[in-house]
Amino acid sequence: MKVTTTYDGPGAVVHIEGRLDAEWAGHLAGALDELLRAGARSVVADMSRVSYVSSAGARVVITSVQEFAALRGELLVASPPRVIADALDNAGLGDRVVTLSEADGQVLISEALEARARPTRDWHTPVTATSRGTYETFAAEPGAVLTCRLSGDPEVVTRGRLNAGDCEVVSFPERVFGIGIGALGDDYDQCGPRMGELLGVSGVVAFQPTDGGRIPDYLTTLRDHVPSAMLACGIVCEGSFSHLVRFSAQHRGDSVPLSELASVCLDAAGSTSVGVVMIAETAGLVGASRRVSPASEGGAQRFDVTSLREWLTFTAEPAHIGATALIAGVIDQSGEPPLFLHVRPLDAAGRLLGHFHAAVFSYQPVARRTVQMNRVVASLFEKETLRAVLHLLPDSRDSGHRESRFARGLAWVSRLETITVPTR
Q1: CA distance linking residue 71 with residue 418, whole number of Å
Q2: DSSP-assigned letter for residue 341
Q3: 253: pLDDT confidence band, cut at 50, 70 and 90?
Q4: Which residue, 328, 332, 333, is CA-closest to 356?
Q5: Is 3.30.750.24 the CATH number for 2-117?
Q6: Facing residues of 14 across strands?
Q7: Could you tell me where the beta strands, DSSP code E, fall in 83-171?
Q8: Closest by CA position to 282, among listed 385, 407, 386
Q9: Distance between start and end Cα atoms, the chain
Q10: Is the CB of residue 321 less than 8 Å from the CB of residue 219?
Q11: DSSP string covering 212-230, please?
């Protein structure tokens, strides 16, 4: 069997020729999976030159059609043999069979496919000038806002040697997301020595321990038990998201920088301060994670080269390429109190500020249309391996500016209506 792929605008055509039997079924499955990983969501399988199909081959086609559909994409089958057409029909997927026109012997994506793959009129292109990515925004819940509460004192964390009175226990139900330095649990004696980068979204909390183990841990919502964590310092947001931003690189092989995506998110919400949760396929993450808890000996943040390596692990080069990340944080363009102590520059000019933590997973393709955030988050923790939790930071050493980049993804955004500070 011969399998070749050609690209036609935003879509792709997979040409299949010969016998599609058990021996070659895996080869076709690999080709279609590679398109999913590359971000193709509008694909036609041209089967006009298939001479034989076994049940194993038919199963690959059916499964692939379902996988594309699960990601809000579409795999259409052109001129399939009768066994494939019947199998699709029995699975309730008969509408995926299409007849395409030919030009110079090449199958083209039909007008019907283009119309079905085209974004709905509810999606809009933002006005922010961009250079690396393509963006579309959807008003999911117009008028929705987030309340933001700052936890702890960043200066106390910087000095190290925390005590129980410097920390607080925070719950993370479904409508709350947050980031910070902390650990799972509510007992300071157990949590203090383990505090590291932490992220909570949609009723799940993940963190990077600092007690010698480098394997991240997490806690999900079980029945009515909402996960909680002890925070030394953090940002906690509650409410709903007003907009959903869909993004991808403009050109194959390129990537979307975090600073550009942050500007688009500000524009989508029409605010200078927003809260964001993202699901993204990574093209390389730049960031850091603590090696030592701020509650331990040596937990003070010292910034000379020798000491820095003792308490901080920094990505020397972009890491976790080809993974999927759950990212949460805030973006701020005002630079005003009280948020300014909790944010850092995102761009080289320092005009865009933010604070993001990322939970990094094994690869899972990101859907291309409107999806429910809680379902995507649950799927990541249930099906993929949690590899790391880190603080995303640009790297401006050696007169350069390296930052986290993404192949594609979704971002839920809402403006921060109120920001409160600790009263103690």
Answers
A1: 35
A2: G
A3: confident
A4: 328
A5: yes
A6: 5, 45
A7: 97-98, 102-103, 106-107, 123-124, 133-139, 145-152, 168-171
A8: 407
A9: 71
A10: no
A11: S--S-EEEE-BTTB--EEE
Residue labelled with tokens 């699960």? 70
Q: Torsions phi, psi of 41, nearest 5?
A: -125, 0
How deeply is 269 buried, as exposed, middle or buried, from its count of CB atoms within 10 A (0-12, 13-18, 19+)? buried
Contact between residue 247 and residue 405 where contact means Cβ atoms under 8 Å apart: no
Report domain extents, the chain. Answer: 2-117, 119-424
The sign one gets for the Cα dihedral 189, 190, 191, 195 is: positive
Pairing of strands 353-361, 312-314: unpaired
**pLDDT tens digit string along 305-351?**
566 677 788 888 899 999 999 999 999 998 888 998 899 999 888 88
CA-to-CA dists, residue 137 to 20, 119, 181, angstroms:
41, 10, 31
* Separation CA 238–CA 173 (nearest Å): 9
CA dist 128 and 130 (Å) reads 6
- The span from the CA of 97 to the CA of 260, in Å, is 39
Alpha-carbon distance of 109 to 419, in angstroms, equals 50
Using alpha carbons, select from 147, 223, 232, 143 the residue that is nearest to residue 185.
Answer: 232
CA atoms of 220 and 231, how far apart (whole Å): 17
CB atoms within 10 A of CB 9: 10
What are 146's strand-pairing partners? 239, 416
What's the pLDDT tens digit per position in 3-34? 888 876 567 888 899 999 888 889 999 999 88
Crossing angle between the packed helical segments 55-70 and 82-90, to the nearest 10 degrees: 50
